[in-house]
Model the fold of this input.
Amino acid sequence: MSCCAPVSELALDLAADGRRPDEIRLASHIVADGIRQSDLSVPGIHCGGCIARIESALAGLPGVERARVNLSTRRVTIRWRAEGAPPPFFETLRDLGYEAHLHEASADRKDPAVSELVRALAVAGFAASNIMLLSVSVWSGADPATRDIFHWLSGAIALPTLVYSGRVFFRSAWGALRRGHTNMDVPISIGVLLAFGLSAYETFHHGAHAYFDASVTLLFFLLIGRALDHMMRERARVAVAGLAKLAARGALVRQPDGSNAYLGVEDIAPGMTILLAVGERVPVDAQVIEGRSELDCALVSGESLPRPVAAGAALQAGTLNLGAPLIIRATAAARDSFLAEMLRLMEAAESGRAGYRRIADRAARLYAPVVHSAAALTGLGWLLATGDLHLSLTIAISVLIITCPCALGLAVPMVQVVAAQRLFARGILLKDGGALERLAGVDALIFDKTGTLTRGEPQLIGPDLIAPAALAMAGAMAMHSRHPYSRAIAAASGGLGAVPVPPDALSEQPGYGLEARLASGTWRLGRPDWALRDAAHTPQESAGASVVLARDGAAEAAFRFEDRLREGAADAVAALRHAGLPLEIVSGDREAAVAHTAAALGDLPYTANATPEGKRARIAAIEAGGRKVLMIGDGLNDAPALVAAHASMAPASAADIGRNAADLVFLHESLAAVPLAIGIARAAGRLVRQNLALAVLYNLIAVPLAMLGYVTPLVAAIAMSGSSVLVVANALRLSGGPAVPAARPAASAPLRLAGGNA
Amino acid sequence: MEDFLYLVPIALILGLIGLGAFMWTLRSGQYDDLDGAAERVLFDGDDRPIRDEAPPRQAPDQADPPKP
Done:
């Protein structure tokens, strides 16, 4: 979206953006006496001018204390006085041309682990530089008295640093040991603590060698890797949380006394009567009492066509009301609704990531016993050879210090941070480093259809073939409806001169179409059997059309729609096939629609009418055959499969729980993100293995030196820094592959919507 | 040779000042919006960040009375 251009489809989006004051209040929180804070996500912010315009407009509203734009996160924080209704943020932002979403304030809380790591890193950096300063003077040949003073000073700096910065590692190591296994933090903690203990002993006894610098520098380097790792995850988390929330937050409930109140979803009980406006999602499973409308089920069941509903029909939570207001009765509480059922399935699904152990942890499991037994054997050998307990212990500990997995601790996170950076630059959010390792290992792909391979919204076929006057008339009528077909017609007629259709002359018949009573006659835009006087004798050109425009029952124009393939879908599928990966489509949509998509993409194998459980079972079947599955899907019904798969991706338009369940979220329209992400993940996997090999090579050289007793603090400092710089430099070699190609309008092959709703 | 007796404390104090300054910038939210900070240089007016440190309070009367 361009920043400074007004929202183009203003008239079409009006209904969706009209927020109730209660909803805004529900999503805000109290920050001070009488002051509430709301957070809005405004994806259109992108320059300094936006900041100035938004802040001055919002600050000028009565009741607003302060408004602050965050350009980095595309977010606006507003503090407003709690008495009275919330100021009209959304209307103000829309007038400026920005689309805004209400943002859960709690989702924006910073991860305290990140700021703790950054503080620990700052302290370790301060201590490491100062201790290194003192150590260099000692190595340069300070006299014994000065050396002792410097050792004491170094120890005095190192001790609080170990307590403050080292607890990150000690805590995790202790947690692992208590549960009876080991991770990378165990050898780190042992190495750091022994280095400090040995140095303290040496300092007490006026010894020549102290390793204070080694223990603190080690912490510093490892904290760099860990802080970067957490910051990467934090950024992905905030970015995912900033996407529009697609679940209902609450609903307007009719009270027994006849008044209406806006209740949060969790407060809605079965039996309550809910007024569901157009453009709202069904909050809980419910039954229609009154009204006729059409529902968009794409996110819930994967059906690409709107489903007409009338009194008595059962509604699933999460479906979107398109046609007309409905009065519905809740049949289940939120915790028993379809959404909750999906959450339970997700928990039950054997998580594809549960059995996975990260490369670093697998390396640590091998590493710790080898290193510790090498140190023990060295100490024992020297003790037998010389009988000098102090010398043997010193050499054994120097082996531990030199092998302390500084390079190993940086080898994996550095590559993953660089890879996340490369992915982020191409609009792909990586949730954590483990996901990258799992993605590199996939060798089969399953796609959802609606909303993933296709855009999930109909487009008009051949607008040029329709008479411009008829298209302009249809567009003017369609402007007033939120039905997907109407939106497609309105969008296609955008360039034509507007025909004035007064809103009071227009009526919408849910499930049928629009009717306008004008001087030129009664115009109908809708289903052929309703719009045409004699449906049995439809003219040739409107046969099989989804929608016709008729004047006084005679056809003027016929409209057909297609569900467009997502941009880059054909190229992405071709690239993945070329790479030898088996692909298939598993969709909840009807057989005919899925078959069309599968054929358009080159005869992919497909499964139609799949239930959420069926999707999960299909993954389990493939994984039982020894393959690792990447699931790409967007709907609520895909969520269990996204959890069950070895790795998963979701587009930014996915349902909230799908987006949270997926390992990677791609923000751009193009499906090219899928082969790109797999390519980067595999390149990263190669670099991780190279880095691990480098770390092993370093140990092969350094350990014999340490065993022979040649390792002084100077040698340890040079070896550790050198190996760390080497693995970081190697990690930076990761290239992101070609940048995402610029949008090509003709790239997506058109695909006919099978059938239509006739 | 005894110059280090005052040079080393000076080095440590300078380092601590730097560390303290960094901690302060971190705590006052100056790294929360790095892109925005670059643009705001050009604007007049109030550009204090909104800080999130205030915990949500239930009601004013439940707050601790100020210590004498």
Notes: The first helix of chain A runs from residue 10 to 17. The interface with chain B takes residues 29-33, 37, 47-48, 51-52, 66, 68-73, 77, 79, 109-110, 115, 118-119, 122-123, 126, 129-130, 133-134, 137, 146, 153, 157 of chain A (CB under 8 Å).
